[in-house]
Structures are given as structure tokens and as C-alpha cells.
Amino acid sequence: METALVRIYKELDKWKHRHLLLLADEQESMVEKYLASGTMYVLEDSGVKAECVVTDEGNHVLEIKNIAVMPKSQGYGYGKKLIGFLVKQYAGNYDYIQGGTGDSPLTIPFYEHCGFTRYDVRKNFFLDNYDHVIVEGGKQLVDMVLLHRKI
Ligand SMILES: CC(C)(COP(=O)(O)OP(=O)(O)OC[C@H]1O[C@@H](n2cnc3c(N)ncnc32)[C@H](O)[C@@H]1OP(=O)(O)O)[C@@H](O)C(=O)NCCC(=O)NCCS
């Protein structure tokens, strides 16, 4: 992965990588809510491997609204590379970078390994905001866990 080919760039055609967006957030209407105002980055390494969408939440807080790595390329450090890119890119202008996710063993450890710590919970977020039951790793998602780290 540490090759000269890795490149991260701002993507303007945000629905171009629809399959990746929906991998991280399976309800299209939820993605629509942040996609227009969000900035999208795509990571390429001999083809598209990952994407993320970030928004400015005010008070010098940047939020990761969506992050996904191609299924076959997960576990090779691409997600962490994108986080590292964001931290570098936004250092100086933001104090914190935050992300929200279901209480899932598939995502929380990823954020923790990227230096994030839990700081809050949005109770019933997945029940109140999604039109269907979201299951991850065999477990229904109910609350959203918020994690952050200093930029
Ligand atoms: C979650 C996701 C973005 C992580 O990206 P990734 O490229 O697979 O993760 P990385 O290889 O960069 O892993 C970074 C670190 O997190 C750890 N990690 C990642 N997933 C983990 C898991 N499920 N359990 C334990 N540790 C995990 C890695 O071991 C690595 O640790 P290290 O740096 O200390 O060695 C990716 O798996 C994905 O796209 N999942 C589907 C979409 C999704 O759920 N998006 C998140 C929505 S909030």
C-alpha cells in the first residue's frame, strides 16, 4: 500500500462512488442529508479503494459523515490512511475531528485504533432516523456512539 500510486483527491461528482457511500450508510435519504454540504475525498491505489465525506460542524469541529473501504481492500490500512490525511489537511483550522457510528465491533475499534475516544451517545439514533432495522455484525444498531480526537 505504501506506494507512490496512493493518491487522495477531492471528488466533485459525489454520487460516482455510490456503492461505497451506501456501504457506510445504507439509507440513501440519510446520505443525501450531508452529501451536498460535505466534502468528499477518494483514495486511489491502482484503482479506487476508499472514500470519506466530511462536514464543518461549526466551533472548529470537523465531522466524518461517511467512510468506506472497498470490501476486498479492508484491513490494509486505507481507512487509517484517509483519517491521517484528514488530520493533516485540516490541522490548524479545526480543533477536533469527530465521527458517529453504531455500537458495533466492526467500526468502533477502527476509530479507536485511529486515536479516537468515545465522548457521547445519541440514544435511539438508528431507530429514530432510519426507515428500517440496521443490522451490523449480526447485531441491531440502536444508539449512535460519538467519538473524537484532537486534530
Ligand atoms: C470501517 C472501515 C472504514 C475501516 O477501514 P479499513 O481500511 O478496513 O481499516 P484499516 O485497515 O485502516 O485499520 C486501521 C486500524 O483499525 C483496526 N481495525 C479496523 N477494523 C477493525 C475491526 N473490525 N476490529 C478491530 N480492529 C479493527 C486495524 O487493525 C488497524 O489497527 P492498527 O493501525 O493499530 O494496526 C472499513 O472496514 C469499511 O469500509 N467498513 C464498511 C463501511 C463502514 O462500516 N464504514 C464506517 C461507518 S461509521
What features would you describe in this structure?
- With 151 residues, this protein is an alpha+beta fold.
- It has one domain: Gcn5-related N-acetyltransferase (GNAT) (Aminopeptidase, 3-Layer(aba) Sandwich), CATH 3.40.630.
- Helix content is 26%, strand content 35%.
- The chain has five helices and nine strands, in the order βααβββαβαβαβββ.
- The longest helix is centred in the middle third of the chain and has 13 residues, at 78-90.
- The mean pLDDT is 96.
- The site of coenzyme A (COA) has 18 residues, from α1, β4, α3 and α4.
Query: How is the largest sheet built, in terms of strand order?
Result: 1-2-3-4-5-9-6
Percentage of residues assigned to helices:
25-40%
- Radius of gyration equals 15 Å
Gross morphology: globular
End-to-end distance: 24 Å
Beta-strand fraction estimate = 35-45%
SSE succession? EHHEEEHEHEHEEE
Can you tell me the CATH architecture? 3-Layer(aba) Sandwich
- Sketch the major β-sheet: 7 strands, mixed
Number of domains: 1
- CATH fold call: Aminopeptidase
Strand segment tally: 9
Please describe the topology of this protein.
Elements: E1 7-11, H1 18-24, H2 28-35, E2 39-44, E3 48-56, E4 61-69, H3 78-90, E5 96-102, H4 108-113, E6 117-122, H5 125-129, E7 135-136, E8 139-140, E9 144-150
Parallel strand pairs: 4-5
Antiparallel strand pairs: 1-2, 2-3, 3-4, 5-9, 6-9, 7-8
The structure holds coenzyme A (COA).
